[in-house]
Amino acid sequence: MLLSLPEKIDAERLASQRTTLNGVYLPSVLHRLAKVFLGVEAFTVSVLFSPKEGGGVILSGNLKGAVTAVCQRCLNPVRLEIDEEFEHLPEDADSLLEVGPTLVPADSAMNLLALIEDEVLLASPMIPRHTEACYDTQDSADEGENPSRENPFDVLASLRQNTTDKRSGTDPASNPEE
Predict the structure, then answer these.
(1) pLDDT of residue 104
(2) What is the C-alpha separation between 160 and 67, in angstroms, rounded?
(3) Over the chain (178 residues), what is each successive 10-residue block's mean pLDDT?
(4) CA gap 99, 93 in Å, rounded
(5) DSSP alpha helices (H): ranges in the chain?
(6) In the chain, where are the structural domains located?
(7) Distance between CA atoms of 152 and 173, rounded to whole angstroms?
(8) Cβ neighbourhood burial of 74 (10 Å; 0-12, 13-18, 19+)
(9) Distance between CA 77 and CA 143 in Å, rounded?
């Protein structure tokens, strides 16, 4: 059984001991995710804290869980499995301008919960949808109510037919010889 992980941790202390945290974040503490998704399941998390050469901390690990979002094709709920590997390099504010992996400011109390919620948001698709074909409720509703829809171009076809009839001489007003 995995234990619940703390919200805040001392990343520098854990890195100096090369600690690995294994645990779970229950849906009751994932408040930011609850605002974005229809449903949130527990996320199992494993994070390795190791010291960086020249000072600093490297966080690497993975997270697994699932969220329920609204499918943007059919507007029904869709369950999204999240299985993501991540790496962060908490640094001081001066080094945030360097190009490289995602950098997070280090302090004595790093918010691990916020970091995990950010990773879930980043791993989630921008446009959630079912991987298989969605049941299109709009098409089935249209078929039941009005099985034979009018073609909007039927009016143009009738005008074209009238013009063709006038040229062929079936309309006596269009024949100048009479």
Answers:
(1) 45
(2) 56
(3) 83 88 93 94 93 82 94 91 86 47 54 92 91 63 55 79 70 52
(4) 13
(5) 11-16, 31-36, 112-123, 137-145, 154-168
(6) 8-123
(7) 29
(8) middle
(9) 23
